[in-house]
Amino acid sequence: MDLEIERKFLVKDRPADLLEYPHNEILQGYLVIGDHHEVRVRKKGNEFSQAVKRGKGLEREEVEVGLSREQFERLWPLTENRRVEKMRFEINYKGALIEVDVYDKALSKLVTAEVEFKTVEQSDAFVPPYWFGLEITKDERFKNKNLSIYGLPE
């Protein structure tokens, strides 16, 4: 089982050149949502996957496996009323990959940035760029699974 070490932030100022970075539309739906676990399916561009995540906060266990288009299409209807749609932009920043998510539909006012690390020490040493806002790594309201059910936090 892989360990995901990830910090998440609100974005206060979108980079002006955001559209110039590589990006993909993401459709993400949840098959199972628990207090500290989730099972989701995702379409990112032309790639399909299923992931199981367990834990909360900075470090979580994650197992992700590829799906065929047909497998995704069979599972997708089971995620009704538990979905998020977003455009993900990938920005290389001082040796780190920042994934900026611009949400769609009911979440269209939300823009977040996630950064994954190999170690907790790398995470601790990361200095966010000026355009990052409040860190929401430990704020469960901003987990995609909760956004898919409850919408944008107040």
Task: Outline the structure in words.
The protein is mainly β. The protein has one domain (2-150): Beta Barrel (Hypothetical Protein Pfu-838710-001). It is 13% helix and 49% strand. It contains three helices and nine strands, in the order E-E-E-E-E-H-E-E-E-H-E-H. It has an eight-stranded antiparallel β-barrel with strand order 1-5-4-3-2-6-7-8. Strand 7 and strand 8 form a beta hairpin. The model has no long low-confidence stretch (mean pLDDT 95).
Layout of strands and helices, then pairs:
Blueprint: E1 2-11, E2 23-33, E3 37-44, E4 47-54, E5 59-67, H1 69-75, E6 83-93, E7 96-103, E8 111-117, H2 120-125, E9 132-135, H3 144-150
Antiparallel strand pairs: 1-5, 1-8, 1-9, 2-3, 2-6, 3-4, 4-5, 6-7, 7-8
Quick synopsis:
This protein has 154 residues and is mainly β. Helix content is 13%, strand content 49%. The protein contains three helices and nine strands; from the N terminus they run E-E-E-E-E-H-E-E-E-H-E-H.
